[in-house]
């Protein structure tokens, strides 16, 4: 708790020197007031759901490219999410899929939203991502590596961006997507950047983080924006994320006792909160102990993983299984590919908390 207090104090003290969107951009959509954010939360209600990629896709590109966009699987698997009472799904986009075919990409986003809406599910879209493989490429995506967690997941944009032309392309992407869907009520909020600073990038990600806040604020949109906090010693990144987000989002894969302490510290920002990643069974972050706690605290709960598939997220981050056999304890995910639950008691617990029973 002392360490968390120190980190929070550091963040607040450095706010005066932290470059914010208002200093660099023409602001069309300024940061929401606390009252506006609270009104959004009241209207939205408690949020529960999962991070989602169809089981037939190894990464964001395989999900969104025209040749592998799998409407049938998306429809079937979101139906399973609806069946256990989930009302929100977090989905990663990818700039290369947009760059290849902007109109087609946006049409596929619309198709996805039509499907999710049919299942009474709202969507949290993610733009950039610093996790896993740093060299994304269009075309046929790699096959999963046996027994390895997220072996084919793609960073976005991947390499460290410094060229103005690259920033210009990414600016067009973010602004076009947010302008196209900025008044779409099926979108819950925009998650601008997943885990900035991951893959040992640290403060190298500050410039892109700053710019994506700038680009988002230069568009008209009805939904809040956020970038989730995830690593508590990335002080400059955490400051920028927390002080420029309309609502506070964060990741926490530890047991409820530690999770609750972090939640209580982040609550000092006075804004609605959504945990956009949790649930790692090995770490005692479970549906049975964490989901009820988050509901009691009125914090949105989005676990990692819905259906076991090509991402291999039933395997732990750092514990590959060389022969690809099923781990005794799944790390993430809720359903098998045929729709049967990994653990029936988990399904009953989720339905109890979401009110689906």
From TrEMBL:
Domain of life: Bacteria
A GO MF term: hydrolase activity
Keywords attached to this entry: Hydrolase, Signal
Signal peptide as annotated in the record: 1-22
Keyword field contains Signal: yes
UniProt keyword Hydrolase present: yes
Gene3D superfamilies: Glycosidases
InterPro entries xref list: GH
Protein name from the UniProt record: Cellulase family glycosylhydrolase
Provenance organism: Mucilaginibacter aquatilis
């Amino acid at each position: 708790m002392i360490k968390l207090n120190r980190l929070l104090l550091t963040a607040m003290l450095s706010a005066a020197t932290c470059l914010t969107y208002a200093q660099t951009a023409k602001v069309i959509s300024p940061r929401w007031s606390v009252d506006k954010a609270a009104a959004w939360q009241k209207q939205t209600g408690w949020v529960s759901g999962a991070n989602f990629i169809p089981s037939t896709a190894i990464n964001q590109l395989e999900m969104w490219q025209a040749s592998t966009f799998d409407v049938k699987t998306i429809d079937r698997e979101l139906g399973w999410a609806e069946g256990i009472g989930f009302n929100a799904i977090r989905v990663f986009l990818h700039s290369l899929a947009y760059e290849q075919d902007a109109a087609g990409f946006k049409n596929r986003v619309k198709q996805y939203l039509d499907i999710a809406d049919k299942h009474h599910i709202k969507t949290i879209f993610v733009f950039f991502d610093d996790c896993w493989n740093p060299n994304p490429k269009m075309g046929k995506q790699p096959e999963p590596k046996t027994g390895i967690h997220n072996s084919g997941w793609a960073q976005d944009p991947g390499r460290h961006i410094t060229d103005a032309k690259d920033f210009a392309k990414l600016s067009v992407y973010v602004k076009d997507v947010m302008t196209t869907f900025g008044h779409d009520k099926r979108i819950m909020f925009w998650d601008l950047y997943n885990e900035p600073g991951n893959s040992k990038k640290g403060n190298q990600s500050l410039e892109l983080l700053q710019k994506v806040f700038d680009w988002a604020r230069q568009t008209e949109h009805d939904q809040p924006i956020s970038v989730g906090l995830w690593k508590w010693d990335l002080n400059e990144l955490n400051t920028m994320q927390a002080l420029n987000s309309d609502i506070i989002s964060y990741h926490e894969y530890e047991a409820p006792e530690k999770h609750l302490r972090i939640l209580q510290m982040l609550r000092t920002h006075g804004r609605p909160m959504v945990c956009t990643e949790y649930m790692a069974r090995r770490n005692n972050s479970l549906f049975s102990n964490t989901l009820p706690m988050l509901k009691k605290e009125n914090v949105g709960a989005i676990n990692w993983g819905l259906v076991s598939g090509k991402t291999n997220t039933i395997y732990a981050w750092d514990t590959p299984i060389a022969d690809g056999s099923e781990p005794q304890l799944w790390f993430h995910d809720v359903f098998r590919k045929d729709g049967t639950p990994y653990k029936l008691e988990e399904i009953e617990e989720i339905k109890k908390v979401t009110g689906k029973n």
